[in-house]
Amino acid sequence: MASQRKIIHIDMDAFYASVEQRDDPRLRGRPVAVGSPRERGVVAAASYEARAFGVRSAMPSVTALRRCPDLLFVPPRFDVYRDVSRRIRAIFLDYTPLVEPLSLDEAYLDVTENRKKIASATHIAEEIRARIREETRLTASAGVSYNKFLAKLASDQNKPDGLFVITPDRGAEFVAALPIGKFHGVGPATAKKMNALGIETGLDLRGKPLPFLQRHFGKSGGYFYGIARGVDERPVRPDRIRKSIGAEVTFAHDLFALEEAIAALSPIVARVAAHCEGARIEGRTVTLKVKYADFQQITRRSTGAAPISARAALEACALALLRPLFPSEKGVRLLGVTLSSLAPAGGSDDPQMSLGV
Asked: The pTM is what?
């Protein structure tokens, strides 16, 4: 039964930026962005001091600096982030083998049956947060509930360095009061469509019959019907392989020069590579998405002979797809990179691949 499961969602607080503040005392207490301050740069992560000014990840650096003139940029150190993530993952595995990583900085844990025979999932979450603080000098927020959907919502409630519990008797009530835009799995486009259908809150969503939701949202209709009632039967899957992992950025100003596009592509690739590392997966197919100023959209795809398991190889393939598109008379307003044909990492230590463009 879903009500008998004990699920924890752990989410590190401003992970990349917090690592930088931990390692450089001069950054502590100050607004920090991981990324490049160049005109075409993009914020990969922002400290909570920076977030107070409205600085967010994936934001163009020029916009971030406009909002926070004292913003301090530091270059990303993904090797360090990956090492810290591995140490945190080891802590999780002390409690349960059922760990489903979502990225370097967050994961689901099913502790219904756990290695330490601790009855309380809340107590386990408190222990894990304390160990993360002691062993890495970083803070994590945790959500505890009886399913994945609610556990993830709960981890957002008391950030940073917080813990929130949603018990089975409070699940449906908690969802009912929640704005639909706060639902995990409901993006801006879907939220806008729901609003147009008169769905503003979880209670509104609960009021729509299943056929109505299936008619308007297809296969996702059944998922929405369940979560509106606090029901989510998805198991925590340590072997879960996503169909694809991608990231994209819409720019404040259109890009015309190849050099600008190359600079903008780098942090996008870095985000995809970091997700792959966190989930311990690799892929064979790289897709480049380009949207022009006139909203024309094109994709270019490459499938290699060997799986990609390193950022350098992913970037090399993405750049090989990008270069033939320049020079361009039309400005580029969006770039995206997706890695698909995914499989568990570890097949080969060779970071090179055949581009096959």
From this structure: 0.75
